[in-house]
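Why this split exists: single-chain examples teach little about how molecules sit against one another. For that reason, every record in the complexes split bundles all components of an assembly together and asks for one structure covering all of them. Below is a record exactly as it appears in the raw files.
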Amino acid sequence: MKISSEQFKGNARKQLANEALQSNLSRFGGGFADRRRDAVVKVDDFEALRDRGASIRAEVLENLDYWLLKFEAEAQRRGTQVHWAETGAEANQILLNIARNAGVQRVVKSKSMVSEESGLNEVLTEAGITVTETDLGEYILQLANEPPSHIIAPAIHKSREEVSDLFEKHHGTPRTDDIPALCEEARGQLRPHFLAAEMGVSGGNFLIAETGSVTIVTNEGNGRMVTTLPRVHVAMTGIEKVLPTLEDLSAILRLLPRSATGQDITNYVSILTGVRDEGALDGPQENHVILVDNGRSRLLGGDLHDALRCIRCGACMNHCPVYQNIGGHAYGWVYPGPIGAILTPAFLGLEKALDLPQASTLCAACEVVCPVRIPLPDLMRVLREKELTQGLRPWHEQLSIRLWRWLALHPGLYAFAARWGTRVLRWLAGRDRLLHSLPGLDGWTDGRDMPAPQGETFRDQWRKKQAAERKIIPIRVDQSLPEKTAGLKK
Amino acid sequence: MNARDRILERVRAGLKRPTPVSVARPDRSLAPMARSVAHLLNDFIARAESLQSTVAQVSDLNAVPAAVAQYLQAQGLSRKAVIWPSLKALDWFSCGLTAEARPPVSEDRLGITETFCGIAETGTLLLHSGVDHFSTTSLLPETHVAILRVDRIVERMEQAFALMQSELGQLPRATNFISGPSRTADIEQTIVIGAHGPRRVHIILVG
Amino acid sequence: MRIGFFVTCLVDAMRPSIGFASVALLEAAGCEVTIPDAQTCCGQPGFNSGDRTSGTALGLAFLRDFESFDAIVAPSGSCIGMIRDYPALFTDDLALQARFNVLIAKCYELSDFLVNHAPKPLSAGQLNLAVSYHDSCTGLRQLSVKAQPRFLLQQTQGIELREMKDAEICCGFGGSFSIKLGDIATQMADKKCTHALETGCDAVVGGDLGCLLNIEGRLRRRGDQHTQVKHVAEVLAESLVNTQLEQS
């Protein structure tokens, strides 16, 4: 997948001007929040479920190595071949080798975000293997040659007319704008692929350590087909997706569908363990799991550790006002929205995604809905701190932060600056009492006026008022303050 | 050192300790829910119907073929079915149905299966793979009829797993929780019933 | 009850009337209000931009200036939110952290204080105004400020409270976000303005001046010169003045 997180500002500007996207966002974007709310309100104590989910995920991460090894042992015991990939590229190679060894020419895929990270499809295609995405949204994007813009509803940025156009172009069938008819068309087109493919590739919503199983949650049935019909099944997923027990899975499944789509349960929950049952007539003869690191292990024990709790529900982006205004493609990589603002710099490097942690008002709408209580705004602040301390912010930004802090620690000078600063602004605003442009602040004034300061500062007015009413006793500034703060500087 | 070793090494380094030899299996058991069969049944039916499954009830297994025939008649569907071998003994023929005990091929329109258990909490069917439990019967044909014994309805998913554990010992290749006909909302967030899997799920409760 | 009033940097510089209104309300609610002279800023502009020292240094200044009061009140959810986060910055000094914990337990956003913690309930004022209330994010999500301003507004005779669509969705201010990612902020502000205007209100009311400047800035740029944008303190103080005038 082409990475464009470095061009976030430009991307965002383009998407704000993208009328089709803006129309689709306003028509479809808000629905997720409504549906989640409707689902949550039916649950007795959803906050208790969130607490449970957060502690299950936190505990797994505390012993991630143990649970991964347990998963590996159990999976192998059941005939699954377990592979470990440090990078996405390695994962692709492993999968390619499996395919070659098994004489695979056709692959059907159900959704895997990790395969988007690694760019699996291009690697397989270049090796002469046909890959067909079967999740309807991913299939639409495969035809459009576009990346997903949302982790649950990948084609949410597309209108039905755009889908009609794509189907008309690629299927050679009469054009229809009717949504059920479009779905029917996809069903018909994809069914033969399921039946013919030699290999099914899936992601893994969760890995269950105690049984060595891969769990996938779907609604369409493509996940079941991909993991049942072909003779080889490969699941690839991140190392952080392991859960200790089936009970843990049950608890997490009370959170995931509700948080993602507002469903009490996804249509299908499929737990795949080992190879075809002895004597059975369906099921893969070869079963593989690729455990992908790709930057995850480096986050463990660090200040972004909590981000690894993520269960990829998409609730954060559904509630993020920034995402809802610019869409997912602006974020420039696999994961958009608040979690993307954290994972993209975490996995690709901060220099590749400087604007992403800045792309938030820290409104905390995401934090309030995260089913596993990831402190997303705090993590964005952590990344902002890293940017500042590593000198990755523009010089004028660093300067204004320092200047403001210094002034605020010197009340007398602060009062002076405020007094004169507001006088200048009032003068600039003129009779309008509105500033239409401000040097260096066109980020604001390009789209908004700035109301002028009302008059004298509160401080000055209050002082005058106090002086008029009684004799003023100024409070002495604590001269030892600089020493105290020096000791605490990090 | 290979990739596996390097990954585990980084995990250990991050967590600042060697890999523990053992970690206690987390105990997250919920208090058992003492609910009557009638209660569970009502919950199950209500939730299954809210997910666009249809539900019928018969008193015993022998009444199933007639119930299926009635359903097919009402829906205007063909009476040719593929069934699980365990259902061969039922009298399909007298009810006008052709029932073949084999995995479905793409032309088959109707698949009839048994159900390991039902889950009242979400109106869900649990089917697992096995020698005579073809996974594809509940997947490929556009109509899936599932026969579920009323005394096999549990409250929650955890109990379903416990039942699997006690009766099967270990999980088979595929453990499928099915909560209604397949669906998608990938185009304009409009829900369409009938995606790649069945368009219809008809549950016949027995007992 | 001795209140230390934290004016906030924005109110001090941009709209002192909010400060005066707040003091009047606090006194009407039975408080003795002191305004420590050395106060400047809570530190969130720098802190939210990643400068930890802005938080620690200004946190210490705040502790020094306000520790001695019975309660501290500010006309801003985001400032009180920042203040409530101070203890987490002092994990290295448990004694200091303990002092901060005592301090933050008595720091309140204005409307929350007036409804839930003031010595006397605020009497109902009088003001004919149709208003729509914008929920500022930090106040809403960190401090649970939601019902309090609405209660105070609705008890005012003549005020008609009209809920706007998406009142809880961020207006796009977010401090430096409003400048750094200004075009996104402008669109967010624009949506907020549209939703507010759809109610036909006379005034958009809120509890944080940053939000209000952002909303007013967009309204004026859109050509709306007449919809008022007011802090809840201003509305309430004006309504009380009206009843006092009536009574006098």
